[in-house]
Each structure stands twice: as structure tokens, then as C-alpha cells.
Write a structure and sequence with these properties.
alpha+beta; 2 domains; two-stranded antiparallel sheet
Length: 167
């Protein structure tokens, strides 16, 4: 008599359990990774941002989010200044609103160095400064590498291989 046996291991029940635990753990791992990557992105953005007083740089931050199956982060900065820096401004007049005049210090004014007062001035506008795009280009290679580590960890977890450590 000839016998043969076909056996599927792990069982379907084992696989369902592995998927369930791996999915729960994966959400935590992805959330932690996005917080880490958000902090890294903010540091890069602050390095690229223009600095006058440092106040605008300090306003750059992020919030992580979980929406359905997506985990990520959103960067934010002081407004409307952020839009003016990123998009630039056209030439425009500036008039005194609260006080009687605008106050400027000119090192080479019309009558020599000193403080000058005007009711209004014509601002020449500013060029766009795409510092967020520069920060993103610096962030992207490491960010992609981090996402690949997560997918490798997830596959190892489902296979039942002990992942050496969380990514």
C-alpha cells in the first residue's frame, strides 16, 4: 500500500494569527517611523529656511497622522509668512497703519547714514525661496530606505521569521 501526505504549514489559522498580530504591530512601527522621519524633515527644512531673527525657523513643525491605512506627517510653518517666502511677492506699496510713519535705518540714505521716516514706500517684492523642496530632496533617499525596512520587517513577521529588531 502506498501512502502520501500533503501538509500545508503553517496552517491557515496560524497565518491568520500572524497577519493579525503583524498588522497591529505594523501600525505602531509605521507611526513611530513617521514621527522619526517628521522630526528629521523638520530639521532639514529649518536648515534650509531663511534666517533673519530665527523666529520663522522655529515655527516649522510637523504633525503625524493616521487616516484609514495611511500613516504620514504634515509639515507646517507660520502663516502668511511661509506662503510669502515659498511663493515670493510682487512689488507692492507699504503704508503706515498703526503709527504715523514707517521707520527705517539706512546705512547709505539720501542724506547719509541714519534713521528715516516715510508714510509709505514701494517694496520691490521678493523672489520665491523653495526651501521645502530643497529639504524634501535631502530627506527623500533616507525616507525611502526607511519605508523599505518596514516592508522587509513585515514580510519577515508574516513568514514567522523572528525579525531581529523593529525597523
Amino acid at each position: 500500500m502506498i501512502e502520501f501526505e500533503i501538509k500545508a504549514t503553517p496552517t491557515l489559522r496560524d497565518m491568520q494569527g500572524r497577519f493579525a498580530s503583524a498588522n497591529a504591530e505594523l501600525l505602531n512601527v509605521r507611526r513611530d517611523l513617521m514621527r522619526e522621519e517628521g522630526r528629521r524633515f523638520v530639521t532639514l527644512a529649518q536648515d534650509e529656511a531663511p534666517e533673519r531673527s530665527g523666529e520663522f525657523k522655529r515655527s516649522i513643525g510637523f504633525r503625524s497622522f493616521v487616516e484609514s491605512d495611511a500613516v504620514g506627517f504634515r509639515a507646517h510653518m507660520a502663516q502668511p509668512l511661509g506662503n510669502f517666502i515659498l511663493g515670493g511677492t510682487r512689488p507692492h506699496p507699504i503704508s503706515a497703519v498703526r503709527g504715523m510713519a514707517l521707520r527705517f535705518f539706512w546705512s547709505e540714505g539720501p542724506q547719509g547714514p541714519g534713521i528715516y521716516f516715510f508714510k509709505s514706500v514701494n517694496h520691490p517684492g521678493t523672489s520665491a525661496n523653495p526651501f521645502i523642496a530643497r529639504a524634501y530632496r535631502k530627506w527623500r533617499p533616507h525616507g525611502q530606505q526607511a519605508l523599505r525596512r518596514i516592508s522587509t520587517w513585515y514580510v519577515q513577521t508574516i513568514r514567522g521569521q523572528s525579525a531581529k529588531r523593529r525597523p
